[in-house]
């Protein structure tokens, strides 16, 4: 299985794979016009919002935003890596996957990283050590003292790292190559000064961290002695990115495939103690704050999230960070609640002290809806009993409310803010649009996607309002790159409600418009004579546009899904996939003109930048002969010439 999968094979495989057959073999589809619908397999829903288009060979869920081609569906639905999904589709199509060594093709992950079996073997060693190692007594007593049964210890794969510097290394580490792999997996540490290697985890209770497929990807260790830190996590590795993983998520889904709500707590033992008491829906972040990536992942699985934190200052700060991460993910129909525990208590101690029924009753009686917690916290900072406090409250709350994509919830939150401050809706909207914080956020509108994990979520920029035909025309929000930075950052989904005219700051970047048009009409690439005159544009969209044009000019017969497959697994591929999921509704009469108008705009912008740089350099010193020629050409070149060059007219 070694080697790269040739891109030509992937193109051919997608051509031979019918997404209706691929999806229909896994979930029940129903014909609805020219498309097929179903209840989404990626989130709980009662009304089907999952659509499969045989024309586009794409699927899309209007509820959770999941979407992609046949390969993407197999990866997400079957929890497969890219090469495994290719193998699966190839078997279905009766094709054999070829492999090629080296070459300039983009490297893809092997079917399984060699770190997985190594981490699994380490997990097995720790489990056996908990059962039989001579020094296991302290670990066993610690777990019994926390009230854990053998069943829970088994379900969570708990183990024991014995004291000593090289127990695991002696058990698993054969030659230097094997030890190097153990370092890569975060199991060993190499001393930079003397080159000596030793076990990372020593004299600790071990908590294996599993991915969505149940594979061990890392460990957490709780010290039994006085060493520091009390809890130690594996470092970042090729298979473990702590900002993207949630401890206990695999176990929670395994225990209940029909989860309705997931509880986010602060530590390993909180998750396990709750599971011991029958509450098997808890997860914990791995030493990081709750992030938007975490929330995107959770809301793809369940519609409701409950945050359960200590009631101290640290817990309150963690809760507010969680709230800020939740806001951009609050589609209508999703819910977040906050439960704060008494001082000195955590979920582990409290559930053991008062029992499951009392803990459930505490959740039902004391958990605050997000909106209540939101206004309570801000009202403590900006007292709405004074005019100054009202003004401050509006300044704090309005930009945050604008981050909420759910139209109904956002409207209700605005109404509540209006009641507290006395400001009308128009004043609050103007305030949110004019604040620096909102301007930054507004420029991140448009298509949004999660770049943090394989099962990334993709959103259309404007979902249809109630009663609108989903296959019909839609209004599209404008958006663009955030702060001009070269990142492809995930953001908020469309709000589903038509908006009025926006300020110039929210106009969609021309390159993004052209990317979308080119994806749906790749034949236009052949009419562009030269894209190099804006190749230096300091804009990620423009850079991708240049690459897309070059690819299409070399391979004129490529279809949309084949183009996307060429960038599969990259941030650019995620953007292309999101753009392709919805038709770009330009009038056929104006499509070509708008396309080349955009290219002309990009060319003119780059020409102006080059001219400005050369003039600035000329003022500072002598230009080279080549630079003088370039400056002369730029000064003489007219915009009409640029248009002619762009269109090849």
From TrEMBL:
Cofactors that this protein relies on: Zn(2+)
Pfam families associated with the record: DnaB_bind, DnaG_DnaB_bind, DNAG_N, Toprim_4, Zn_ribbon_DnaG
Compositionally skewed regions (Low complexity) per UniProt: 638-649
Domain annotation Toprim: ranges: 260-342
Record-linked PROSITE patterns: TOPRIM (PS50880)
SUPFAM superfamilies with a match to the protein in the record: DNA primase core (SSF56731), DNA primase DnaG, C-terminal domain (SSF117023), Zinc beta-ribbon (SSF57783)
Catalysed reaction, written as an equation: ssDNA + n NTP = ssDNA/pppN(pN)n-1 hybrid + (n-1) diphosphate
Biased composition (Basic and acidic residues): 467-496
Enzyme class at the top of the EC tree: transferase
UniProt-listed Enzyme Commission number(s): 2.7.7.101
PANTHER family: DNA PRIMASE
This protein's domain notes: Contains an N-terminal zinc-binding domain, a central core domain that contains the primase activity, and a C-terminal DnaB-binding domain.
Family listed: Belongs to the DnaG primase family.
Subunit structure: Monomer. Interacts with DnaB.
Protein name from the UniProt record: DNA primase
Organism: Stutzerimonas azotifigens
Higher taxonomy: Bacteria, Pseudomonadati, Pseudomonadota, Gammaproteobacteria, Pseudomonadales
């Amino acid at each position: 299985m070694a080697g790269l999968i040739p891109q030509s094979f992937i193109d051919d495989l997608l051509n031979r794979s019918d997404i209706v057959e691929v999806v229909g073999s896994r979930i029940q589809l129903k014909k609805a016009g020219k498309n097929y619908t179903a209840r989404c397999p990626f989130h709980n829903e009662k009304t089907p919002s999952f659509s499969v288009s045989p024309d586009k060979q794409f699927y899309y869920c209007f509820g959770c935003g999941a979407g992609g081609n046949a390969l993407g569906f197999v990866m997400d639905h079957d929890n497969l890596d890219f090469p495994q999904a290719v193998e699966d589709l190839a078997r279905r199509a009766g094709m054999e996957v070829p492999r090629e060594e080296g070459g300039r093709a983009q490297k893809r992950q092997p079917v399984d990283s060699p770190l997985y079996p190594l981490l699994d073997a380490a997990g097995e060693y720790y489990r056996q050590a908990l059962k039989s190692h001579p020094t296991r007594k302290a670990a066993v007593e610690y777990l019994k003292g926390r009230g854990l049964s053998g069943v829970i210890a088994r379900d969570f794969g708990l183990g024991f790292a014995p004291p000593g510097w090289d127990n695991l290394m002696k058990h698993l580490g054969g030659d230097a190559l094997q030890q190097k792999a153990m370092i890569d997996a975060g199991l060993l540490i190499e001393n930079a000064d003397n080159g000596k290697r030793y076990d990372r985890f020593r004299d600790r209770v071990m908590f294996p961290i599993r991915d969505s497929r149940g594979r061990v990807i890392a460990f957490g260790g709780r010290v039994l002695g006085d060493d520091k830190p009390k809890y130690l996590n594996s470092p970042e590795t090729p298979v473990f990115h702590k900002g993207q993983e949630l401890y206990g998520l695999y176990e929670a889904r395994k225990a209940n495939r029909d989860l309705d709500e997931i509880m986010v707590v602060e530590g390993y033992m909180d998750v396990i103690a709750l599971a011991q008491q029958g509450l098997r829906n808890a997860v914990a972040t791995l030493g990081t704050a709750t992030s938007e990536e975490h929330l995107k992942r959770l809301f793809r699985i369940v519609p409701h999230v409950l945050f359960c934190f200590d009631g101290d200052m640290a817990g309150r700060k963690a809760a507010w960070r969680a709230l800020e991460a939740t806001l951009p993910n609050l589609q209508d129909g999703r819910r977040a609640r906050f439960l704060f525990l008494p001082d000195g208590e955590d979920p582990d101690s409290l559930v053991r002290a008062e029992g499951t029924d009392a803990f459930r009753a505490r959740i039902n009686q004391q958990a605050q809806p997000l909106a209540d917690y939101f206004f309570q916290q801000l009202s403590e900072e900006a007292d709405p009993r004074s005019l100054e406090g009202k003004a401050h409250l509006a300044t704090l709350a309005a930009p945050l409310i604008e981050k909420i994509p759910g139209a109904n919830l956002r409207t209700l939150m605005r109404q509540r803010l209006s009641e507290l401050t006395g400001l009308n809706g128009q004043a609050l909207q103007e305030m949110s649009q004019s604040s620096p914080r909102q301007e930054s956020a507004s420029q991140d509108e448009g298509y949004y996607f999660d770049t943090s994990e394989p099962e990334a979520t993709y959103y259309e920029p404007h979902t249809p309002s109630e009663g609108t035909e989903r296959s019909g025309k839609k209004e599209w929000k404008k958006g663009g790159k955030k702060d001009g930075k070269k990142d492809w950052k995930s953001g908020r989904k469309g709000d589903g409600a038509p908006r009025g005219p926006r300020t110039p700051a929210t106009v969609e970047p021309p390159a993004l418009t052209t990317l979308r048009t080119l994806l749906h009409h790749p034949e236009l690439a052949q009419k562009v004579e030269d894209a190099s005159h804006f190749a230096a544009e300091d804009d990620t969209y423009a850079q991708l546009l240049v690459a897309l044009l070059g690819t299409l000019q070399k391979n004129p017969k490529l279809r949309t899904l084949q183009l996307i497959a060429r960038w599969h697994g990259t941030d650019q591929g995620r953007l292309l996939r999101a753009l392709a999921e919805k038709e770009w509704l330009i009038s056929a009469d104006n499509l070509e003109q708008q396309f080349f108008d955009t290219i002309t705009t990009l060319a003119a912008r780059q020409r102006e930048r080059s001219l400005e740089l050369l003039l600035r350099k000329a003022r500072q010193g002598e230009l080279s002969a080549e630079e003088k020629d370039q400056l002369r050409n730029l000064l003489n070149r007219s915009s009409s010439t640029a248009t002619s060059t762009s269109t090849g007219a």
